[in-house]
Amino acid sequence: MTAHETITAETIAFDDHALILIDQTRLPGELVTLRCTDIRQTHDAIRRLVVRGAPAIGIAAAYGVCLAGDQTGPPTTKQIYLDAIEYLATSRPTAVNLFWALDRMRDVVESTDMGDLPAKLLDEARSIHAEDREMCHAIGRNGAELLADAANVLTHCNAGGLATSTWGTALAPIYHLHQAGHKLHVYADETRPLLQGARLTAWELSQAGVNVTVLTDSMSGSLMRQGKVDAVIVGADRIAANGDVANKIGTYPLAVLARHHAIPFYVAAPSSTFDLALENGDLIPIEQRDRAEVASPHGVTVVPEAAQVINPAFDVTPSELVTAIITERGVVHSPDKSKLADHLS
Ligand SMILES: CSC[C@H]1O[C@H](OP(=O)(O)O)[C@H](O)[C@@H]1O
């Protein structure tokens, strides 16, 4: 196996009735795994971003449902499974893949005899996991053409193998091109406050042998002005029916800068990231995270107590700033409600 496949092929695993996660809060310094054996540990792992990234959250939560019950054994009633699903749904509010995956698990609970449920639920979680692997590679194929002539691609946060089962969404076309011998360079925004770009994207790309340079979040605009960025590609946590995109905080200003500098701005996401029940992105729930992530990163106080802090995990990019959305089904250029409805039907 290549270093890349070895490192990111198992972002998530389920073995011996335990959910095994790369602990992404410990990267890049330590590659360690966390073993979850119940739904509370799973909920906490999602909440603390031990596992993070919309598809990865959905896969982890699906396996979390399989851990419902207690030390005496699996649930004795369907209600215990349904309560576990509702509890896992409270872990984070924005990534719609979490709810998409839990809906699939709920359908299994409601349609399966009690005695068959443990096996059927694990089958469904493994199907969600396997489908995600296929999705990543399909997005890689579909997006590669858009980046084939790019020498320098800028990305934000981490939408790579660590945000999915393997390969990722925004990084999938980059891995696809890299494996085909196309040597492109990636600028990775550090992505404050949790630094998923510096800590995770730079780590996994360098592990895979892809040339990567970390930027502070304030550098992107001047690099674009200097003509050093050929394309921007990012992931998504939820996409509304009109193509508005919720993604890590800092994505919206990137889209504005890209439009100002006539640089293509691509969003890569599976069909499970679309929420067609929401007319536009203003309706997407945006997670507000703890003050400490901004005010005292790694325990170092950088904001005086008297000052207020806001810490929204995501922002919304209007669809008119999106050059194209890449899914496992293909590419939607200049996305709008009608085009997306056709694409997803
Ligand atoms: C492939 S989805 C990746 C998406 O999820 C990240 O958010 P978080 O790290 O808080 O889970 C970020 O928005 C990425 O673009």
Fourth-level CATH superfamily of the largest domain: Translation initiation factor eif-2b, domain 2
Structural class: alpha/beta
Which sheet architecture does the biggest sheet show? 7 strands, mixed
In this entry the ligands are: ligand LNRAV4D5
How large is the radius of gyration? 20 Å
- Beta-strand portion reads 15-25%
Q: Class of the largest domain in CATH?
A: Alpha Beta
Our count of helices gives 12
Helix content range of the residues, please?
A: 25-40%
Which spans of ≥5 residues are poorly predicted at pLDDT below 50? 1-9
The overall pLDDT, averaged over residues, is 96
Word description of this protein:
A hairpin with a 4-residue loop joins strand 13 and strand 14. The N terminus is likely disordered. The protein is an alpha/beta fold. The protein is globular. It folds into two domains: 131 residues, translation initiation factor eif-2b, domain 1 (Four Helix Bundle (Hemerythrin (Met), subunit A), Up-down Bundle); 206 residues, Rossmann fold. The strands form three sheets. It has a seven-stranded mixed beta sheet, sandwiched between helices. Strands 11-8-9-12 form a four-stranded mixed beta sheet, covered by helices on one side. It has a three-stranded antiparallel beta sheet with strand order 1-2-3, covered by helices on one side. The chain is built from twelve helices and 14 strands.
